């Protein structure tokens, strides 16, 4: 585990890298309908996403599953699009539960895990002992993900409680903006066209 700090750092730097902002957008839109008072629901959602991407990250890095990277790079913004649409279709001021979103986050986590694995595989090269590195990288990803969640919830708190923006207006703005960005990303990544 001597390389733990290195792979931990690579994990959080990867998810917080603005050049690969698709994962940031997904985590933001996933918790975009919640406020700080909903932290337990957000914890469940983030845990579901973590379980999903941890499974496929491990399976892909260990070469148990192989999926076309162009397809994964296209599907990642599609997951963001669908999550944004789900937010926009639910105009209720309080999210009524996490059942549907939990399964959505878990399933979409599977897709994102395969995206993370492409980066991690390039770092590992031909290394034969990768379990410790895989664990450290995943913990780093989670650390970065928590930073995104906290930043999003604090931004929502300031807008809703301090600046008195209506909760629906915040959710609509965030989800619509992320919808637009992810739509363009998906259009640019359609496999076989560009």
From TrEMBL:
- Disulfide bond is among the record's keywords: no
Q: Where are the transmembrane segments?
A: 20-36, 43-65, 71-90, 102-120, 143-163, 170-187
- The source's superkingdom equals Bacteria
Keyword set for this entry?
Membrane, Transmembrane, Transmembrane helix
**InterPro entries per the record?**
Put_HupE_UreJ
Record has Transferase as a keyword = no
Q: What is this protein called?
A: HupE / UreJ protein
Q: Which organism is it from?
A: Pedobacter quisquiliarum
Instruction: Provide the organism lineage as a comma list.
Output: Bacteria, Pseudomonadati, Bacteroidota, Sphingobacteriia, Sphingobacteriales
């Amino acid at each position: 585990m001597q390389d733990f700090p290195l792979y931990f750092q690579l994990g959080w730097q990867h998810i917080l890298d603005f050049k690969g902002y698709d994962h940031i957008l997904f985590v933001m839109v996933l918790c975009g309908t919640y406020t700080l008072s909903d932290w337990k629901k957000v914890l469940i959602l983030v845990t579901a996403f973590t379980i999903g991407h941890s499974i496929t990250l491990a399976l892909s890095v260990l070469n148990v599953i192989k999926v076309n990277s162009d397809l994964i790079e296209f599907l990642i913004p599609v997951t963001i699009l669908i999550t944004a649409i789900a937010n926009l279709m639910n105009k209720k001021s309080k999210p009524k539960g996490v059942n549907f979103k939990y399964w959505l986050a878990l399933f979409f986590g599977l897709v994102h895990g395969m995206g993370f694995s492409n980066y991690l595989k390039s770092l590992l090269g031909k290394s034969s002992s990768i379990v410790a590195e895989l664990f450290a990288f995943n913990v780093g990803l989670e650390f970065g993900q928590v930073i995104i969640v906290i930043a999003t919830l604090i931004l929502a708190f300031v807008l809703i409680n301090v600046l008195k923006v209506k909760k629906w207006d915040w959710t609509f703005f965030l989800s619509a903006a992320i919808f637009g960005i992810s739509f363009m990303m998906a259009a640019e990544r359609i496999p076989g066209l560009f």
